[in-house]
Design a protein that fits this description.
alpha/beta, about 30% helix, TIM Barrel, 12 strands, 10 helices, globular
Length: about 300
Amino acid sequence: MKIALGPLLYYWPRQATLDFYAQIADSPVNTVYLGETVCSRRHELRLDDWLDVAAMLKAAGKDAVMSSQSLIESESDLKALRRIVAQADFRVEANDMSAVRLLTAAGRRDWIAGPTLNIFNPATLGLMAEAGATRWVAPPEMSGAVLTELLGSGAPAIETEVLGWGRLPLAHSARCFTARHYNLQKDTCEFRCLGINDGLMLRTREGEPFLTLNGVQTQSARVHNLLGDLQSVRQSAQVVRVSPQGEHTVKVLELFRDATAGDLPSQEAFRRSTEWMVEAPCNGFWHGRPGVEQFVAS
């Protein structure tokens, strides 16, 4: 099973981001997704900078992929998307149907259908494959049973990738909830999300973790963790994705390497991973249950 590192969902300072990917060059990961997928106002790294990072990772033997933005809101967003599609050195992860349309028009036959395309049935997956997709990322809320059924219902034979670690991206909005947290408007947000490594925790009135605010993106409070479920993940997927977090990402990647290689039992890998988590684990979606739950089969 291959290991992929998803795109960086948070807004880290420029040097911190570059240092992070320098570490990833020496990590046990096969595919690295790069670029800004959450908010077009985040400009610590421009497209040329991301392409430089991609070239560095490619030289280190990694499959570098350029990810498109998940919520296209303006002509400037489309302009940036056209530049991503126009470059021919790296594959593209399409996270919006406008990206699919541009990739198809450009004759690209090597792109990846991202998780925010919301592919839930064989017919839609077939359309993506016909348009040139060679891999797709299952929506994080899709259960393992539904995924197995989908792939057994006449779906095309392309690579399947599943999110195995990270806070669950639950929704995108035209509004910026981080800016609202600071009583600011989105267009004058003062880039308050810069340097918040893992988003802002939103708690209930009783003080329990509820959601995570990440600019225009709302995430789960808990960390989706399928290390203990790798046996069932293997039955459907060829790639497992780890989402970057503020600290210990390389250690998490090493646990996935050891567990997928059979050098470490998956339950032991899960036990060890709790040391590196920013919040409590959950795997409910994978088991067809509420996502917040941590399900352990009896």
